[in-house]
Specification:
Distance between the termini: 41 Å
Order of helices and strands: EEEEEEEEEEEEEEEEEEEEEEEEEE
Shape: elongated
Mean pLDDT: 85
CATH superfamily of the largest domain: Immunoglobulins
Number of strands: 26
Strand content: over 45%
């Protein structure tokens, strides 16, 4: 499911290891690729290279030209950058909005063939905003939630040859997901979309082509992401210091005072559906709901107790955590409040 929503999502939560890719514009009106009568074509990869980077220029024979027995000369804006055998080479990409002309000449059996390519790089980045949970003030960003949704935002910085930035709200955005064009979510000013998270062990690739309304400036971006299962972590809620987020509890927890309060924090649990709540269990018996559980030993002595917490977002996404609590010095009972 994909829908367009006009809202933003704060960048908090578990760090998402999903890269965004910035691209630039290939000036389509000035390409000499596949010109009539030319025995070769040249292509640039990526199609929209980012400003101040490099791109790969490749050559393919189209009418029997033997590239393995040919020489290649390449110049950019009149400056010679390569001479040698006909092969894939790297070419520098200029600043955003700056027009560059790449001229390639292939010579075979005494005959030279020339093509030119006009390149005006533009900067377009895609940002993922997963609609998933994380503790308040957490410095990271949540992962794309399994069975949830993610908002994809295009940050376009298209500039003219004079370096003047074009207002992003006036640009046209053409979105595709896994190679399928999303016509209903494309158009002027449509710089974001909401996409369903991919199924487990699969991924989505979302791409966008951004251009000015006259078509003179074009840029693009693409991002590939996977979904992640949610995690529920338990923390000690200190009466003086607050929740100790610097140390998650696991394994065995020693209760040294008269009581202790535990806090359950869900990471990357979908937040786009119905609200969810933590369910606590003490020795496998339901205790209470809510993010906090206060436990204390009852009577004299020592012992152990098992504590678990679960939180679900819909019928298919659940996070759980387990903890063994030790207390006292001799056998006694245990109470969770």
């Amino acid at each position: 499911m994909i829908a367009r929503k006009a809202f933003s999502v704060a960048w908090v939560g578990l760090l998402a290891l999903v890269p965004s890719v910035a691209f630039a514009q290939l000036a389509t009106g000035s390409l000499g690729l596949g010109s009539s009568g030319s025995p070769f074509t040249m292509t640039l990869s990526p199609s929209y290279p980012a400003p101040n980077t490099s791109a790969t220029l490749s050559f393919v024979s189209t009418s029997g030209l033997d590239l393995s027995n040919a020489t290649l000369t390449v110049a950019e804006n009149g400056t010679h950058i390569y001479s040698g055998s006909a092969q894939t080479i790297a070419v520098p990409v200029g600043a955003a909005g700056a027009l560059s002309t790449i001229r390639a000449t292939i010579t075979s059996n005494g005959t030279s063939y020339t093509q030119t390519l006009a390149l005006r790089p533009q900067d377009v980045s895609l940002v993922l905003e997963p609609l998933s949970s994380a503790p308040p003030l957490y410095p990271g960003k949540p992962l794309v939630p399994a069975a949830g949704e993610v908002r994809v935002v295009a940050v376009a910085n298209l500039r003219t040859n004079a370096g003047v930035q074009v207002n992003p709200t006036t640009l046209s955005y053409s979105w595709t997901m896994d190679g399928v064009r999303l016509a209903n979510f494309s158009g002027i000013g449509k710089d974001a979309l909401l996409a369903a998270a991919p199924l487990q062990y699969r991924s989505h690739t979302i791409s966008v082509v951004v251009q000015s309304q006259d078509g003179a400036l074009v840029g693009g971006g693409s991002v590939t992401f996977e979904s992640a299962d949610p995690t529920l972590l338990l923390y000690d809620d200190d009466p003086l210091l607050g929740i100790l987020f610097d140390h998650a509890l696991s394994g065995t927890y020693a209760l040294t005072g008269t009581e202790s309060t535990l806090y359950a924090a869900p990471y990357s649990l979908p937040t786009s559906g119905s609200p969810s709540s933590v369910q606590w269990f003490v020795n496998e018996s339901a205790a209470q709901t809510g993010p906090l559980l206060t436990v204390r030993p009852v009577g004299q002595g020592a012992g152990t107790a098992s504590i678990s917490a679960t939180e679900a977002a819909g019928p298919y996404t659940t996070a759980a955590a387990n903890l063994t609590v030790t207390f006292g010095t001799t056998t006694s009972s245990f109470l969770g409040l």
